[in-house]
Amino acid sequence: MAEIRSFRAIRPRKELTARIAALPYDVYNSKEARKEVEREPLSFLKIDRAETQLGEEVDLYSQEVYEKARETLLSMEQEGVFQKEEKPCLYLYEETMDGHVQTGLVCCASIDDYLNGVIKKHENTRRDKEEDRVRHVDVLNTQTGPIFLAYRRVEELSELFSKIKEGETLFDFESAQQVRQRGWKIGEEAVILRIREIFRKIPALYIADGHHRAASAVRVGMMRREAAKSYTGEEEFNFFLSVLFPAEELRIFDYNRVLLGLNGNTEKEFMKKLSEKFKIQKQQAPVRPEKKGVFGMYTKEGWYRLETLPKYQKEDPVEGLDVSYLQREVLAPLIGIKDPKTDRRIDFVGGIRGLAELERRVKEGAKAAFSLYPTSMEELFEVADAGALMPPKSTWFEPKLLSGLFLHELV
């Protein structure tokens, strides 16, 4: 049963919110982050990617970078740019993109729920990426990037949230990505109590996005427990900043694949081998798969529609995914790609960039590009419930949660 709680958020002053809010730290490389901070000096990337405040020669993972993040946050708090809530609250966070609306509850989730499997994951994490955020959170003494969690819709919660959204907003602006951002505060003790009671009846929460942030938050919490020797479980380090969304409101985009080589095959040879795994039809228009089991493929010869063959399909929650079919039947045996995370012969393109991006990549030298039907939330739930892990780059959520709107201090 999910345990959530209110917290005293550190938030930007209302009139500065739009300038401060930024996409998650891992959306940018260092050069892009520097450019963004140059464009907007108040951008939260000053804190999430503090190397932007130092010389370009700095080691991204040096202690100096994490100390600079702490110094910058304290300075912005002292200047009144950020202010801490007087009492623990919950919040609603709504994003509207191309007419699609998703509303999440901003709260703190329990590291114990993560450790005991109430909070379920579907991705592996890399230790080096974890280590960066562990040090960032530990030195900053603050969690800055919310973990994106999903739950199966509860009608009472949806009705309650609709009523809360009739009230005054904390912020209302359009981001640089043309996503409308709105927030509301939930300060009434009785309402907070009721929301917590409802979540205690929800059997599981699912990490949609933010596996590294979640793993890092848990590691910092465990470090603090060990350092404290005795703890009550109520300390802030036992909880991590999260936004919880009903799964039905979330949108997963396709996560497409680009092949930079064909493993010595000519295109004709590659197509012949593919024809053993798919029903293939040449197409005049770009192929955006209309259902599971259908792929688009673009080569210098144009677009093809590929449909999987029943004899190669699997019922297993992981092996039954389209991304797994492509890996198992094409990438591994035909191209020799055993580990798509590290193999330089494959690249990944988020569906938000469109099919034109796949065409562009092939015209610039890639050998083939595959468009995929998006993984569904139900498939994600099935994999997580089975205690299994999805292949890398299986899901692309949009819109992203912005950082800098709500911070959680670990004291």
Largest sheet: 9 strands, mixed
The low-confidence runs, each spanning 5 or more residues with pLDDT under 50, are none
Percent range for helical residues? 25-40%
Query: Which value, in Å, is the CA radius of gyration?
Result: 23 Å
In round numbers, the mean pLDDT is 96
Write down how many β-strands occur, each being a DSSP E stretch of 2 or more residues.
21
Proportion of residues in β-strands:
15-25%
How widely separated are the two ends? Answer: 25 Å
Tally of helical segments: 13
Number of domains: 2
Alpha-beta content class: alpha+beta
What does the overall shape look like? globular
Key descriptive features of the protein:
6-stranded antiparallel sheet; 32% helix; 9-stranded mixed sheet; 411 residues; alpha+beta
Descriptive overview:
The chain is globular. The protein folds into two domains: about 5-250 and about 400-410, no CATH class; about 255-375, no CATH class. The strands form five sheets. Strands 1, 4, 5, 6, 8, 9, 10, 11 and 12 form a nine-stranded mixed β-sheet that branches. Strands 15-17-16-19-14-18 form a six-stranded antiparallel β-sheet, covered by helices on one side. Helix content is about 30%, strand content about 25%. It is of the alpha+beta class and about 400 residues long. The chain has 13 helices and 21 strands.
